[in-house]
Specification:
Length: about 90
């Protein structure tokens, strides 16, 4: 338990930030899952729509250091690659 006034304030701030970060991470994970499900179903149009939303959330999470910016970039790259991969057979037809 914090004893000093400044330590008590720091604890309050940490609680608020932890909840905000947890919410942001959960939102990012949900959006990534939506993209992956669309890719698995072979729905590349839906996957692209979900990806644009996921990319925005990943960029925001990376910018605010909720996740590492390089991790955000890596996830975006991998999702984009998966979408591109399922689009290839459709483009060849």
């Amino acid at each position: 338990m914090p004893n000093t006034t400044s330590a008590k304030k720091r604890l309050r701030q940490n609680v608020v930030r932890r909840l905000r970060n947890r919410s942001a991470k959960s939102s990012v994970r949900t959006q990534i899952r939506k993209v992956r499900e669309a890719v698995q179903a072979g729905q590349w149009e839906k996957a692209e729509q979900e990806f644009s939303s996921a990319a925005k959330k990943l960029d925001r999470a990376g910018a605010s250091r909720v996740i590492h910016p390089n991790k955000a970039a890596r996830l975006k790259s991998r999702l984009q690659h998966a979408i591109k991969k399922i689009k290839q057979p459709a483009a060849a037809d």
